[in-house]
Amino acid sequence: MPLLLIRLSCVLASGDSSEGWEGQMSNERSRVSTRRRFLGTAAGVTGALAVSAIESGRADAAGISENTATLPATTRNFARGPVVLELGGTQQALLKSADGGDTIAQVITYRSGSEPVAHKQIGNVKYEDFALLTNFDIELPYAQWIVDMPNFQVTRKNGAVVVGDFNFAVRSRREFQQALISEITIPMLDASSKDLGYFTIGVTPEHASDGSLKGSISKKSQNVQKRWQIQNFRLEIDGLDCTRVNKIDSFTIKQKIVENRLGESRDVGIVAESVEFPDLAVQFGATSLPSWQKWFDDFVVKGNSSDSDEKSGRIVFLAPDLKTELGVLQFHHVGIYALDPDNEPDSAGALGESLARARALLYVEQMNFTKFGPYALT
Fold this sequence. Notes:
This protein is mainly beta. The protein contains four helices and 23 strands. A hairpin with a 2-residue loop joins strand 22 and strand 23.
């Protein structure tokens, strides 16, 4: 049966503290996702495009048709200010941006007998995923929540996304209950970029609603040493020369979440089902090609691709001093399945040795964080 959307829309945004606060709220209503619409305006934020995957997955799970009514767009802007995440009533992180938690109801269309007119009624109520742009300057409970997901730990949280004004008074509060992390998107890593890096954390709530505007936001400034740039990373894979790796495409760890009907309730429960780990696309200087070519020839061409022939590795996310480790993402059972030794050069002009790049595609069976901000595996 065709479905329509009834949407209560709210967009939350903020800028990095070095750029001035950029909190804003919008109640635009259209068939385009509020999450995609907002993140498309977040200039300089790497990894934001991954939210489209969050949106499409959630729409599929909700069973919502693409044939939705287009509602007139209106915009309501507030003074710039901070956006923070609260968990269990305690402030956990100052976010680059946040969006989501919209209330959606299905409109069910049906016919009675031979009546020519189709009848319509409201069906189940659902809530859109949140998308939180997060760096490493966060509190331990939030870091632990992020780390738990790829470790197959089903951790639910109650919390809120809160927008403040210049005086740190609360201007908007979107609360959520029994939420699960559905996605962790690592932004593109690029040695030639000076952009600040943010992880996009997808959060699927079982219920969401607007909360009280009383109170204020804590006046916490961000730790400069924890402000990570996407050029500050190091890839390590057993037996491979990774010293000239200059780029890794953005990738997303996903937790499949399915709906669970709650009796006659109009709300829909959620259950975590499985975790999916993505492939990696790695670009590196051609002078490092011999070790990669040797592994490819042995693993793919000769077919020596058993578990013992797979490799382990990790990405280390580094602070501005290039020594302090802000985060570590471990890789287990890594295999290579494509190698392009003649990838396009980094810049226009003759393809000299200094510019020549190779590109490898790798599969990874499992990933886990051994460090993320204040969290460290002991």
